[in-house]
Amino acid sequence: MTYAFNYLTLHGPCNNKDYKYTAFDGTCKADKCEQKEYKLTGHVDIPRGNIIELAQALQLRAISVAVDASNWSSYKSGFFGNCGSRLNHGVLLVGIDYDRNWRIKNSWGGSWGD
């Protein structure tokens, strides 16, 4: 994710009309994007395992986080306990409930999970 944030700081985001999401097709279309007048002004890395700082940052905005999705293929719905440590997938952390369950938004499509 750091590489993506660095790119957005330098170049800004692409519009959906320039770079439609089609899953990975082996090509990069970023060079076809118009230059944007707005860019990311920076990002902050929260140290691994710092749950307090993560929860505090979450009060202000959604957060990109890396997770271990190695055993996610069996997930169907509801809460999913995952304690893996091989960070291999990026998701959007959008909330935490009263039982301290983290809520994430994933991008594997509408036919998978809740």
Keywords:
three-stranded antiparallel beta sheet; 114 residues; 2 helices; globular; alpha+beta; single chain; 2 domains; 3 strands
Description of the molecule:
By secondary structure, the chain is an alpha+beta fold. It folds into two domains: 43 residues, no CATH class; 69 residues, no CATH class. 16% of the residues lie in helices and 15% in strands. It contains two helices and three strands, in the order H-H-E-E-E. A three-stranded antiparallel β-sheet has the order 1-2-3, with helices on one face. A hairpin with a 5-residue loop joins strand 2 and strand 3. The chain starts with a helix and ends in a 9-residue tail after the last strand.
Question: Which helices and strands, and how do they pair?
Answer:
Elements: H1 2-11, H2 51-58, E1 63-67, E2 89-96, E3 102-105
Antiparallel strand pairs: 1-2, 2-3
| Continuous helix count | 2
Strand order of the largest sheet: 1-2-3
CA radius of gyration is 16 Å
Percent in helix:
10-25%
Largest sheet: 3 strands, antiparallel
Secondary-structure element sequence?
HHEEE
Number of strands: 3
Q: What structural class is derived from the secondary structure elements?
A: alpha+beta
Number of spatially distinct domains: 2
Low-confidence stretches: none
Q: Please state the overall shape, judged from the principal axes of the Cα atoms.
A: globular
Mean pLDDT: 78
